[in-house]
Hints:
Layout: E1 12-18, E2 22-23, H1 33-46, E3 57-61, H2 72-79, E4 88-91, H3 97-110, E5 116-124, E6 130-131, H4 134-145, H5 149-157, E7 167-168, H6 169-173, E8 175-176, E9 181-182, H7 183-193, H8 198-218, E10 227-228, E11 234-235, H9 247-250, E12 273-282, H10 284-290, E13 296-305, H11 314-325, E14 335-338, H12 343-354, H13 356-361, H14 383-386, H15 393-407, E15 412-419, E16 423-430, H16 435-440
Parallel strand pairs: 3-4, 3-5, 14-15
Antiparallel strand pairs: 1-12, 1-13, 2-12, 5-12, 6-7, 8-9, 10-11, 13-16, 15-16
Amino acid sequence: MPQKRKVLNEVYVVDGSRSPFLKAKGKPGPLTAANLAVATARPLLARMPFEASDIDEVVLGCVMPGPDEANIARVVALRLGCDQHVPAWTVQRNCASGLQALDSAAQNIALGRSNLVLAGGVEAMSHAPVLLATSMVKWLGQWATARSFGAKAKALGQLRPAYLKPIIGLLRGLTDPVVGLSMGQTAEIIACQFGIDRDAMDNYAVRSHQRLANAIDQGWLNEIETVYDTEGNFYQQDDGLRRDSEISKLAKLKPVFDRHFGNVTAANSAQITDGAAWLVLASEAMVEKFKLPVLGRIIDSEWAGLAPSQMGLGPVHAMTPILKRHKLALDDIDYWEINEAFAGQVLANIEAWKNPEYCLEELHSRTAIGELNQEKLNVDGGGVSIGHPVGASGARIVLHLLHVLERNNAHRGIASLCIGGGQGGAMLVERGTNAAQDSAE
Length: 441
């Protein structure tokens, strides 16, 4: 059994915010990644009783920052008014980059290296780069070094139309280079492995939209901040919601990743989206010093590796060690957030925990883990309806999970994601009365 880890300092989540998640619509969206991150963090910091210069560090997850956003965390930190002495760094763990940012920040607080950290994730997937082929780059090098008219004429004569074919960075980035499979193809593999059919995927997708619609109508997404673009337009809520989602409509869509035999469609997959999410993490000393509210605590985290072709099963590989370490059964977890990269992928994780053979051979459990209660899973929708800006989703699901726990007066939750390349990440969080909360009240 995994050994329980020693925690030197408690890690508290003070508050958080996220942007509306804006669906990509075939052209660059209204905000770049840096602008999204800044616009989302400003109102969060404005309601804090401390100054931006009091922050010890800024950690931001991002997979595809733009050409003017090298070490985007530093760019954002300076624009937010953090003094130049406040270090900032960017992390990249594909789909769980935002979760990695939180984990990195939490570790530094637990070890006493930091006391107050702004951490989160951002992605402007609609701004993903379009690249030149290597052949075109070589030709440009030849052209740049040609000095005489004759040399330039020779180089021009060697230019071929095929060199001009662009490389779509987003499509290349969503394909695993080791096994040569797109993320959607890996979802098809594990859905087939666990018998997840098209009907089950489409039903799950419809439910995701229904749950998001209900959350919006009930006013349960109060972590969303209104953001403004450079032209004065404002954005207040997620725009990927399809209130008219019905099984009959989804059934008409053709599979995307396996056109002849597949079941994964655009409708039962996560949307390509732009978005940002932030959390303020603090030590007990900072909670007491600034009399900060406490939304919850980060208790534990886990990272796991598995075959890239099975990457969608990463959540059960990451969540199982946490459960074992803390001697928790599935029913001991009040609410779950498992990122909806694909409907079939989430359902496959649920089936994997029910399968004794898989639990024994892959998760090293002598018995089946059990059946996760889907009434406690992604209760306000997920990536299928909200969208999945890869750098931000890990931070979003942790933030929202804490709000769900607060709303329902619940205690314990786990957030998890599958990660392209064959990994999984998970984080255990809790809320409830503790010494830090008592001192802040």
